[in-house]
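Comment thread on ticket #2218

A.B. wrote:
> Attaching the input chain for the structure job we discussed in standup.
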Amino acid sequence: MPLAPSLLRLLREDDSHLRALVSLILDDLLSRPAKELVDSRWLADAILSGMRASVEDDRTRRWILDQLQASRQLAVSQQGTLAQRVSPEVSRAVKDLLRRPYSPDPLLVRAIVDHRAIRNLMRDMLQTTLNDYAKKVQVPKGAMDAFAASPLSRGRLGQLAAAAGVAAKVVGGEVERQMEGRVKEVVDDAIARSVEIAVRHFCAPEHAQDIAAWRADGFDVAMHFPLSAWAHELDKLDPEGLVTDIEALLRALTRSEAFAGQLRGAIDAALTQGGDKSARDFLEGSGLEEGWRPQAEELMVRRALAFVQTDGFEAWFGALVSAAEASGDQG
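C.D. wrote:
> Ran it. Output below, let me know if you need it in another format.
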């Protein structure tokens, strides 16, 4: 009987051989030091080469846009919310994580909050509030109309009141103009103070629980927002323009010698830190190898079993055995 068909049948019908091979491969990977498995310069150059090929190929850009468009159309066609499609257990776990109290460093928060956009927001809020207040301080128009319709408006008292009304309007208009100018000065002075109050409030331990609840409530709002509304929000981002910006960023990175050096340095540092340790040494005591290896082996065996059933593997395997037999005959 020819050797190739016999070996192929063993591989296809008895998975013990593939299971043994998969176990050997995993053992080898886990026991080898990382520096033996990865050449830092080769890996860095391979990453950069792949990035360059992607950003220079128009097909990649078109593919990304197609995926975004498909996702948008799917969201628009779907009814309901994310909450209806995500397991309640998962949502509760995320909310529990967001509810954990956390008091950030004021220096970090101040660096983020003290920005032109936030200052403009505060200026708009304060100016609008103070200007509205200044207008309300004036004599209400309703009160003047009521007085004009009453008997008191006739006679000398009415004449005095009318004159007073005219004066009030003139003075009120002037006060309003002066108030608007003064408000701008007050607001500019108040913004810095407002930023400090916001930072102090956000970082204070006594407010950590409230802010944690705000994060969790924000998650709830997002989860119960209609899927179609999320699709419209994606449209506002201008997906094509967004891809163009990301493409420009990646192109700048791949053309930067500084980035190439930083990437190689980061990989070198990671490998140096590991020293001669293998993946098994690194995972020792974590329980991760014991927890994940059975699932990894099973997945690899399933894929291997499916692969050896293909015509392509059969042709390759037959050619390999034939080459080995021919080599043996020559020997």
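A.B. wrote:
> Thanks. Noting for the ticket: Residues 1 and 7 are 11 Å apart (CA to CA).
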